[in-house]
Known about the structure:
Elements lengths: L10 E5 L3 H12 L5 E5 L15 H4 L4 H4 L5 H5 L2 E4 L4 E5 L4 E4 L4 E3 L2 E4 L3 E3 L4 H4 L5 E2 L4 H7 L8 E5 L3 H12 L3 E6 L11 H13 L3 E4 L3 E7 L2 E7 L4 E3 L2 E4 L3 E3 L2 H5 L8 E2 L11 E3 L4 E5 L2 E3 L4 H15 L11 E6 L2 E7 L6 E6 L5 E7 L2 E8 L2 H12 L6 H5 L7 H4 L1
Parallel strand pairs: 1-2, 1-7, 2-3, 7-19, 9-16, 10-11, 10-16, 11-12, 18-20
Antiparallel strand pairs: 4-5, 5-6, 8-17, 13-14, 14-15, 20-21, 22-23, 23-26, 24-25, 25-26
The chain binds flavin-adenine dinucleotide.
Amino acid sequence: MRDAASTSGETTIVIGAGQAGFSFCARLRELGYLGNVILIGDEHHPPYQRPPLSKAYLLGDISLERLSLRPDEFYADQRIDLRTDSRVTGIAPGDRTVTLADGTQLGYDTLILATGSTPRLLPSSLSGELAGIYYMRSVADADAISPEFAAGRRCLVVGGGYIGLEAAAVAAKRGVEVTLIEAAERILQRVACGQTSDYFRELHRSHGVDVREGIGLRALGGKDGRVSSATLSDGTSVDVDFVIAGIGIQPNVELAQAAGLDCNNGIRVDTRCLTSDSAIMAIGDCASFPRNGGHLRLESVGHAIDHGQLAAASVMGSDETYQAKPWFWSDQYDTKLQIAGLSTGYDTIVERKGDTASRSFWYYAGNTLLAVDAMNDPRAYMVAKRLIEAGRSPPVNAVSDINLDLKELLKT
Ligand SMILES: Cc1cc2nc3c(=O)[nH]c(=O)nc-3n(C[C@H](O)[C@H](O)[C@H](O)COP(=O)(O)OP(=O)(O)OC[C@H]3O[C@@H](n4cnc5c(N)ncnc54)[C@H](O)[C@@H]3O)c2cc1C
């Protein structure tokens, strides 16, 4: 590790004041970095948590203040020069400078790209100039959607991934009539097994959401400039007052690409978060890192925190390499889903039933435990997470045996 004194007089610039950028800056100071730290974000708010945007915040259960990752004074206390409402428009790697939208130029010794991702938009041939079509990424997005949620209004949710399903749950809870369409054969197809899809389909239907799978969007119709109807791929049409699209995200790589950095489904980094330029690192949603012989991009809070912290250690001279420990959660109605691991490549699902409301699905490839989806079962989640992180795989008959206390699996 470098000694802290050697960092004095340096400047580290972070582009993107989100979860990963925040985590990087906070850890860099914890590790004793003495140089200048400039955190630049194009949103109005200081760094905040995004997950509640499609959950408790959209429901009106928590305030904007509670989303903040730290109180405003934290940044001054930690000598983090936080610049909100500031957009970086260019990077000149040769000069080691960045340019802001207002023309300001800032020099760096180390540059961190923590630019996150942007929702995929519906094709403009579908959405045109119509008002009443929303996406879900920022406080501004959630604030724009919230007034639409009134009892009796009709919403079309396009996309049955986590964002679409969470938005549908909040809308239904607020009395909105929801139709949710998913172009793939089943909701959550990209990320979960058929059993988890079945669980959430039933959950939504039991709350009155009209879930239609294998159905795409063919056209949107409007009245007085606002969306008023949707024609679906099976030829049926639904009347709508507004639309929420949750059809995936794409990493924000434009700045990196223009600066000549290697990008391929994200900004390519090595195990220490370094890009193809040795003075530039990338972290969080926007970065694609080495894993199991390939490259992976993760879109989760846990990864953004860990990746940011590892990059900070790396700046301080640590040669620790990034070992992702994927975990994720989703809240829908009274169900808390917790996911440990990555299920890619599974061939067997083992179900473990808890009491009436709890259940977990364990993903195996051969005898190797890859991942778990735990619904209202924090114990299954916690045990599975520890097993997966330790590279241990319990026998499937032990997992499905409801008379076995799961904690026993940690002892063997
Ligand atoms: C509605 C919603 C719900 C979610 N729920 C969950 C969940 O339940 N569990 C979970 O683990 N994850 C969840 N996620 C994902 C999680 O929030 C993200 O993976 C995480 O925020 C990624 O952090 P990041 O710092 O990489 O990106 P972000 O948090 O997106 O931060 C990037 C920031 O960079 C800014 N920026 C981009 N370009 C520039 C530029 N040129 N100049 C200045 N600033 C720029 C962006 O505006 C943004 O503020 C959710 C995300 C959303 C949107």
